[in-house]
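**User:**
Make up any protein.

**Assistant:**
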Amino acid sequence: MAGEFLSNTEKLQRASKVEAWKKEPIHVIDYPSGVAQDGRRYPEGRRLIISGEQVMDTCEIPWCKTAVDDVFQGIRLDPSLHDENEHSNSLKPPLRVLERGHGLGISGRFIIQKLISLGYPSTYTVVELNHMVANSARNWKESLEHGLQSLAYGLVDTLPQIHMQVIEKDAYEATEDFIKNGDKFDIIFSDTYPLTEAESGANDIGDIDRLKKCLSPNGRLAYFGLDLDSSHFDSDTYERTGGISGSYKMFIENHFNQTRRHSVAVNPPPDYLYLHKDGIPIRRLPAITCIGPTFD
């Protein structure tokens, strides 16, 4: 069920696309480094393509790392903690993390590094709609669990203890299930792909009223806040603001006690059209962290 950004007609269109997207084959291509027409050099990389659409590219690694760093910033785990104080960074383990959208697994790898460094038990749930990408996530999960077991081999009760699961489902539908089951998360990292033009730029917060119900009182949300509204987009303004002046900037602030934004430099290759607007490369992406959900 899509959120308040979509009309009933747009919701039906999205539902149809969801069913098709589940079964679409994926293609992962590797490309060499090169030089764009403007003389800009870009490194070699890898790209995920689903149904002919460019879904993820390794040129987004700087954004992934910054977004993960920021949503984990300052978090402390305290096993002796009884009650969470308002606006506190201290949380009682296990830390519960939800990631919506696996893609190439870039953000997931940074998330796992953070969970290991915290040194306490944690849970990590991945929600992915596409069947082949979900299978890739499950294979990665098995390899990771084997690696963690090898790391702790011969050492009794050695951390890290990370319980992982992969849920193959639409992100909005999975959120509804979490609410029904009373599941709560301390961190939600959402980087889904807009299945329809109507939800583009708002796909990760289209169900924000429900998504907030899945967060703990001091929970945090990080999401891909690229907003390229064609009727308002101006390349000079976008470059100057680092991409954090979109139409959803003020909207998200009404749902949380605190929001943090960082502008992250990226270097998209010329044929990665997802990070181009009217032929102009998008060289900065907004990393947005929202802390402490509020309710009317």
In short: The first strand starts at residue 26 and ends at 31. The mean pLDDT is 88. The first helix runs from residue 8 to 23.
